[in-house]
Design goal:
- It comes from Sorangium cellulosum (strain So ce56) (Polyangium cellulosum (strain So ce56)).
- InterPro entries: DUF2169 (IPR018683).
- This protein is mostly beta strands and 452 residues long.
- Helices cover 7% and strands 29% of the residues.
- It has five helices and 22 strands.
- Strands 3, 4, 6, 9, 14, 15, 20 and 21 form an eight-stranded mixed β-sheet that branches. A five-stranded mixed β-sheet has the order 1-2-22-18-19, with no helix packed on it. The protein has a five-stranded mixed β-sheet with strand order 5-17-16-11-12, with no helix packed on it.
- Strand 11 and strand 12 form a beta hairpin.
- It is globular.
Length: 452
């Protein structure tokens, strides 16, 4: 069980306590005269070829857009949004090009969910000129986040003032299309994320032309505490939903962002606290009473499971978040092995408040982890290969709550984390066609229509 926790107050409208390996934040927004609080929780995982990603130290919450040093596009879109109707899938970084390859190259991003191909994006890039020694790198331009000033995204504002939709205190105008907050290209949005999808990256890594990795089945949990409650307070469950998958090819990691909101009406925000974190299957968090900790009393972690009660929309809740560094995307050279040890789409719908999602149910057990960390070899024992699922198309699990229904209204048709650090060194023990799930996986992918 994860017991570590950190309290942050000054930066966010509602003070939060972050449990375990998660970063979190809150933002407050007004719509039709009613006030709401959104909790944002983020976890970062190391990519594991042919296996399950590993939870590491979280990237910080990014408060706003960060331009790419190349001068083209964004390094990050920012994590602060009140609500996302669809799930964004973003890929940033560089494709590695072997010295023998010249001219145009093709990269691919695919997501398989419950045995079905839910997202499949191919992109042709101008490759490097022939010659030279060693592998070269080409920036993947076109799969990362779009700026709010992108014409097709900006058009969704209508007459709204974009300055009122920035920061941690927002005023959402009546009739705003919620698609304005989606940063992914239209082709890279999904109805929702379950948390156990398989992600396929093609053409990104010279020594592994097709990298396949599975999300860990993690889920965010959050509770809202009110000062007037009697100690020990248990808090009210805040339904959290995964709505963003950010893949950083250069650092060989990905981050998942969860979001949940609730109404707080005229409540004093200073009298509210949020406690939140991320749970892995079989690793529940233990809760603390944040007010007891502040008053100097013992904040003994509670083993009580999070409430599964459905929160009606007009209820109170607050966000979750960890401290943001001065530069929100610093520290790109942390080895993921150390991190593991430590812990698209239509633009429609105006801004009628979406109903709050239901709290996610218990996560299904995770398959045994393959020992090839990141992009290392896949020479795991045969016995382990037998125990883990043969393909990502095994027994389906129930999807988390469907996306809340929003006001349907016509809208305009749909229209990085760059390599600040040095390129990663050569990875040993990699074959062009890795062992493990290779043949079985490809067969299943072909049956699901995931291969050309």
């Amino acid at each position: 069980m994860v017991l570590g926790w950190t309290v942050h107050r000054a930066r966010w409208p509602v003070a939060i306590t972050s449990l375990g390996r998660a970063s979190a934040a809150t933002l407050v927004w007004q719509l039709r005269g009613q006030r709401f609080v959104t909790a944002v929780v983020k976890a970062t995982f190391g990519l594991v070829a042919e296996g399950t990603v590993t939870l590491g130290e979280p990237d910080p919450i990014v408060p706003g857009e960060v331009p790419d040093p190349s001068g083209v596009g964004l390094r990050a879109a920012g994590d602060l949004a009140p609500y996302l109707r669809e799930a964004d899938v973003l890929l940033t970084g560089h494709a590695e090009v072997p010295p023998t390859v010249a001219g145009e190259i093709t990269v691919r991003l695919a997501v398989v969910q419950e045995g079905a191909l839910r997202l499949d994006r191919w992109l042709a890039l101008d490759g490097p000129a022939p010659g030279g020694e060693g592998q070269r790198r080409v920036r993947v331009d076109g799969m990362g986040p779009l700026s709010r000033r992108w014409p097709r995204r900006e058009a969704l504002l209508g007459a709204a003032d974009p300055r009122r939709l920035e920061g941690v205190e927002l005023e959402v105008p009546e009739g705003l299309d919620w698609a304005y907050f989606q940063a992914a290209p239209a082709e890279q949005r999904m109805e929702g994320l379950r948390g156990d999808e398989w992600v396929v990256l093609g053409g990104m890594f010279a020594q592994r032309p097709r990298l396949r990795t599975q999300l860990a089945g993690a889920r965010a949990v959050a509770r809202l505490f009110r000062r007037e409650g009697r100690a020990p307070r248990e808090g009210a469950a805040l339904a959290m939903r995964a709505d963003t998958l950010q893949i950083d090819a250069d650092r060989r990691c990905c981050s998942v962002v969860w979001r949940g909101y609730t109404a707080v009406a005229g409540e004093d925000l200073a009298a509210l606290r949020i406690v939140a974190g991320v749970e892995l299957p079989g690793e529940p968090l233990r809760w603390v009473d944040p007010f007891a900790q502040e008053s100097g009393r013992s904040a003994t972690p509670s083993a009580v499971a999070p409430s599964r009660a459905v929160l009606p929309l007009p209820a109170a809740a607050a966000p979750v978040m960890e401290q943001v560094e001065d530069h929100p995307l610093e520290g790109t050279m942390v080895p993921l092995s150390a991190r593991a040890r430590r812990p698209a789409t239509p633009f429609e719908a105006p801004s009628v408040l979406p109903p709050a999602p239901q709290p996610a149910g218990p996560a299904a057990p995770r398959a045994p982890r393959i020992q090839d960390h990141l992009l290392e070899g896949t020479m795991d024992p045969l016995s382990m290969r037998v125990r883990r699922p043969a393909t990502p198309f095994e027994a389906p699990r129930e999807l988390p709550p469907a996306l809340p229904a929003l006001l349907q209204a016509p809208a305009p048709a749909d229209p990085s984390r760059p390599d600040v650090a040095a390129p990663p060194g050569p990875l040993l023990g990699l074959a062009a066609e890795p062992a493990g799930l290779g043949d079985a996986f490809l067969s299943a992918m072909a049956e699901a229509g995931a291969l050309p």
